Amino acid sequence: MFTIGCHLSSSKGYAHMAEEAASIGANTFQFFTRNPRGARAKAIDPADVEAFHERAQEAGITTILAHAPYTLNPAAAKPETRQFALDTLADDLIRMENTPHQLYNMHPGSHVGQGAEVGVDLIADALDQVLRPEQTTTLLLETMAGKGTEVGATFQEIADIISRVTLSDKVGVCLDTCHIWDGGYDIVGDLDGVVEEFDRVIGLDRLRAIHINDSKNPLAAHKDRHEVIGGGHIGLEALAAVTAHPALRHLPFFLETPHEDVQEYGEEIRALTAAREELL
Ligand code: FE
Ligand code: FE
Ligand code: ZN
């Protein structure tokens, strides 16, 4: 079983995303909870959620991944910027309970010159304020490329955040192949070594989702520019090996590659599936 999908626009609601996913042969999808720049979220329509559950069942969709606006920064220096992040995260986690037992991914944040240690503390502090014992959602911290002052470009920083969170059983990790490659983890030359390092530093039990992207830049570029599968420096074979790796192959995979049209994701899913099968 290969759980594979892509990022879809949420502007037409949940049921529409399930239909769109099914139309390209996907059995999962990712979406922004609101405008990626962080505007106010539209109210969730219970009829749409009900229609979504029906379509999802037909399409074999059991896991979905929400993505927080990428402008949120719980590690900001300005208190009002941190407060905006807290308010948005808290609101998103309440909204997530309309679709219980799903995944919610966020970029940890940028320390904006305060230093990674301060950043780690601020992010853990924010999670302590928004996570609730009764929530069914797992919040994922995404591994980052290390662009600017991003926190979470090393497995150690992600592990440090998690170790400081009180309700850490609500926290997992989303690994982005473009980001870790740009961050200096050589998944082309030594995938086993990278997986072992993840397990040693964070623990593979924390890993809940993978963003499967190629990169426009060479190893350790710290850039974060996604490329279509096979069009970048990681390549189709190495990315197929990620999807086929015994420690990873059960996870849901999400394409965040640059495409104009959703149908192009369908072609990418077919190419990746074929390359994966050859390795299994
Ligand atoms: Fe992301
Ligand atoms: Fe990503
Ligand atoms: Zn990215």
Protein described:
The protein is α/β, with parallel strands linked by helices and 280 residues long. It contains nine helices and twelve strands. It has helices at residues 14-23, 46-59, 79-96, 116-130, 155-164, 177-182, 191-201, 236-244, 262-279; strands at 4-7, 28-32, 64-67, 103-106, 109-110, 138-142, 150-151, 171-176, 207-211, 214-215, 226-227, 253-255. The strands form three sheets. An eight-stranded parallel barrel has the order 1-2-3-4-6-8-9-12. β2, α2 and β3 (64-67) form a beta-alpha-beta unit. α1 runs parallel beside α2. The chain is globular. The N and C termini lie close together (11 Å). The site of one fe (iii) ion has 4 residues, from loops.
Blueprint of the fold:
Elements: E1 4-7, H1 14-23, E2 28-32, H2 46-59, E3 64-67, H3 79-96, E4 103-106, E5 109-110, H4 116-130, E6 138-142, E7 150-151, H5 155-164, E8 171-176, H6 177-182, H7 191-201, E9 207-211, E10 214-215, E11 226-227, H8 236-244, E12 253-255, H9 262-279
Parallel strand pairs: 1-2, 1-12, 2-3, 3-4, 4-6, 6-8, 8-9, 9-12
Antiparallel strand pairs: 5-7, 10-11
One fe (iii) ion is lined by residues 142, 176, 211, 256.
